[in-house]
Amino acid sequence: MTDLDDSFDDDTLDNAIAVVGMSGAFPGAEDINQYWDHIVHGRCLVSELSDKDLISAGVPPQLIENPNYVRRSGILENVECFDAEFFGYGRDEAETIDPQQRLFLEHAWKALESAGYRPREIQEPVGVFAGCGWNRYAINNLDFDLSSFGVSDFQKMLNNDKDFLATRVAYKLNLKGPALDIQTACSTSLVTIQTGMLSLLTYQCDMAVCGGVCVNIPHGGGYLYSEGLIMSKDGYCRPFSPNANGTVFSEGVGVVVLKRYEDALEQGDSILAVIRGAAVNNDGADKVGYTAPSVSGQADVIELALQLANLSPSELDYIETHGTGTKLGDPIEMSALERVFGSNADKHIGLGTLKANIGHLDAAAGVASFIKAVCVARTKIIPPNIFAQDSKPEYHGDGPFYFTDSAIELNSKENVKVGISSFGVGGTNAHIIVSSPPPVQHARPAGGPIRPLLYSAKSEYSLWEIQKKTDQHIMGRMDEIEACTNTLLNYRTPFDFRTYSVLDVGDGEHSNAKIVPSGKVSEAKDAPKNAFMFSGQGSQFHRMGYELYEGDSRYREYVNQCIAAMHSDLANEVKQALLGTEYPDRRILDTQIAQLCLFTLEYSLARTLMDYGINPDVLIGHSLGEFSAACIANVFSLPDAVAIVSERGRLMSSTGEGAMVAVLAPRSKIEPILFGSLAVSVENSPLNTVISGTVEDIQSLEQKLKLEKLACVKLATRFPFHSRFMEPILEEFRSVFAGITLNPPEIPIVCCTTDSVTEPFVNADYWVQHLRNEVNFHQGVQRLIDQYDADNLVEIGPGDALINFVRTITLDRANLIQTLPGAKMSANSLELFVSSMAHLWCTGVSVDFAKAGLVGSGAIVDLPTYQFQRTAYWRNEKTGPAFPQHNTAMFPPVNTPSFAEEVEEKDAQKEIRDVWERYIQKPDYDDDDSYFDLGGHSLNGVQLIGELNKRYNQNIEISDFFDHPTFNHLLKAYGITAAGEAEEPVQTTPHSASASEADIHQLQYRGSSQPNKIWMQESLICKWLLSRLYGFSRMTIRRVLERIIFKLEGGELFSVTMRKLYKKYYDMDIGHYTAGCFDKGNFKPGTTIGRYSSITPTARFETADHPSTTVSSSGLFYRESFGFSDGMEIPRTKIVIGNDVFIGHNATLVYPCSKVGDGAIIGAGTIVNFDVPPYAIVGGSPAMIIRYRFPKAKIEALLESRWWENDLEQLYPARGEFMKPVSGSRVR
């Protein structure tokens, strides 16, 4: 709830309306913050247009040369763009929707989101009151056949008529109040606000979405000045100036969200301003002509608004006038103001007009002025009037008015009151009065110093943009952190693509606050399954989890419970080990102390996560960790568990001394060379086996391993656990269980010492033999994945030892989540714990952040709203210049060959796919997927079949398509065989080396000394630029780059694929999947194997000798080439893998995959020491993520050279102009 100042109490607010949300885009401003910044700094946003701008906009050269042609306009950027997929539109339908309606729909979503509401989830009735400008898109760009008015014409009518603006928003956002289209010319959007107020006050709705939009088409041009019309002769609008000579038309969109004031107060809404009164009237015939304004009409509407607001004229501080800068309009408006406000020597009411800044927005003019007025009331700043060519507005009358040429602050006034006027051609006048919002007292941060910032979106691009903008915004709003975290989690629609940042608020003054983006993207699932993995001995260290103990009260409480259950001497020892500032490191290596510390940490950590809603579906423990898991599953109580673990540690340390060594090799490679006391104690992973034995035997084994060139690491323990050396203590340990009740696990536990899952845990003999039996963590994890299909594997304990083991077992079949730092990590344990909960939320887990004290309960605040992934949807069905001209080749007409056509596909099959993809919404699909599951609807289905029937001169019934709505059935219906049309085959077909050049296309990097080699870095940038610079759809890009062919040594040609691309600004993450093995000796050094496809998971070869050889791709571009050799040295090269950094000293990066032993795999990106045969792993593992940063200079250089344009032009010759950037496109 919002904390309001009690001093703000006014009995005139009984019928007041609160403004609780706003969104807009205007010339030079993509949001309201930019808009207000321009206004308050007195900037003119009407653009001067060059010959190039005008020609690009399609203005005829003879018109440009006309001396009366005015080269100025207020231009809204990217009006051709829209996020069709977000709103469930296919390309064909999106291209025929009036751009004004598309813009208004996007900003209606943003306005509701800024108000703190999740569109589509609002239960109360929400009204929509909207108006738009003259629809010139339909007239200029679309072709209607009014004689027959078929299905296509009907669809275009629905998508363009003004009647469907408000109802489209109501339908797409699931708003169930009144949905009314308002059209009163220039006053349209201010009238929508007054109409919305009336609907609220009569309880027809509980919230109102109001506003307007105007887009001028043809877009980006000026106008031809004509004497006697209202247009400015020189393109400047000078309201109330002696040199005023007309207005300039402009573009923009504005949407506001309104609620009844008392409801907004009660429900804790963020109130931006208060509407005190509003009125609408018409001039009637009391004026010189239909289009002329009326003094009496304007004066009457202002007086009525003041009466309804229960205010006297002298109480206003500022008036945002209609102010068009015309010789007729301005004097009449000033006369009306003087009639209402009378004579007053005290010039205390400022006058201003937005049209001097941005021009006349027609149907959106009123809401643009209203948003400016709200900003004036909210900030208590009167912005300057701007003056073109030293032509200042002047006031010489007796009224209480003044103009200012600099910003004026009114901080001394408790409540600033502002009037807004908007007068429409035809005589509909509107005036609204707003005042400052009640003061808000922001809650001081009540939680700890670490906070998660949670983000979600429908696409990865939108996700990164939201995160970037919001992180930057929050850094300047640290006093509102409670409200910011509250708004992000509770008042934003959760989507499937998710990420997070971690905020450290620093000291009380926030002087050293920082925000760290996670760099991770997850796709949330409904109710994902969680597995808790409990660490074994060896990961402990002094003060592990200390920051978490200090910062989280629940974790602290559980740690204290564990310590309280111990004998006093042990309790003090454990407390010092976990929390003390001075504690000998050697003491925490003591087996009894180490095991008690680890159990305490693991139990407390798991219970804390469960309290916060992160509940495990299955548990697994590594050695000691199985006792922690059993206690969490209530096999035994906490006091009993503490007693068992304490005695277990004591007895284990009483056995004869021995040693243990971890060998980085598979079990099958190690067992044949064991001797004497040596035995396998633990199998951690396919490439990590632990051997135990006497000190002497272990030393001898180490020498033997060195000779065999097998890497090994001696473990920091004096006792050979899980071996025959534990047998002397078994019976004494059995006595510990006397009188202890063992219960069946309430949560399934995967056993790592037997094949059973739950039965052993109720038997004391199992826990006794657990000391002696081998731990097969590798096998346990495999059962965990196979039987429980866990989505999230969460390591419960310090560090990521288990995660590293699991990564080589699961090949990325689950999310691996670390909760606490290890001994060698400098990370803060509270920060990593919070990060792990945020990561789990990203996967779909319902985390109770409020219970954890990580999300505030403060007011809703204005944060950056959803960042739509807007791409070009533009159609020109008529002769004459298209807009934008350079976009015509991007989506060629269906009766011409697509440049994505492939030489081996039949033309008819490809044509049908092109048509099909224009009517569906999901770019990735199977050919047997239902048309309706892909976002198609019945009306578009009629158009789809109608278009294909006409093209192929057939009469397929629509009912037949609705009965079998798949692409494959569509092919059969038109007599086309679907054989060989499997989308994105994993394997690829080899091509003969003697194939003609007409059939083989080779993409070469300009300047490469290896003409048959594709350089992966440039290929990926090429794909990215095709999307960002040219606005190509993912489907189109995939087809263009799908089967670029490369020449291998040996004379055969292959199509090769790899996966998978993520973009974050200039970062590219590539996921690696090792799906098989091969002996790299079968391939010659320097073989080129790489290229890009966004779908297939591996690179696959087919040759006579190797019909199914699959190799993993690599995302580390050493020397910028994508080849491999028998040993590529990486001297002092920095390689970043996850959170670890490896320096490749005397190491080699395996390209791309190598066979180690029988069936064992070293994955792409693995660092291997070839001095220790047969390739001992130094760092890395299969299926990892490697990030590579594309330097900004590299991208800019490629942009300048445009090396790919000729290549693609040769690959797919287009008809007409090709590869020109989309208008308004940006590469950031």
Which terms would index this structure?
1228 residues, alpha+beta, Peroxisomal Thiolase, Chain A, domain 1, Malonyl-Coenzyme A Acyl Carrier Protein, domain 2, Alpha-Beta Plaits, 31% helix, disordered N terminus
Report on the structure:
The protein is an alpha+beta fold and 1228 residues long. It has 5 domains: 12-435, 3-Layer(aba) Sandwich (Peroxisomal Thiolase, Chain A, domain 1), CATH 3.40.47.10; 531-655 and 720-842, Malonyl-Coenzyme A Acyl Carrier Protein, domain 2, CATH 3.40.366; 657-718, Malonyl-CoA ACP transacylase, ACP-binding (Alpha-Beta Plaits); 894-973, Non-ribosomal Peptide Synthetase Peptidyl Carrier Protein, Chain A, CATH 1.10.1200.10; 1016-1211, no CATH class. It is 31% helix and 17% strand. It has an 11-stranded mixed sheet, with helices on both faces. The chain has a 5-stranded parallel sheet with strand order 29-24-23-31-32, sandwiched between helices. Strands 28-25-27-26-30 form a 5-stranded mixed sheet. The longest helix has 21 residues, at 591-611. It is elongated and about 115 Å long. Residues 1-9, 879-906, 979-1192 and 1201-1228 have low confidence and may be disordered.
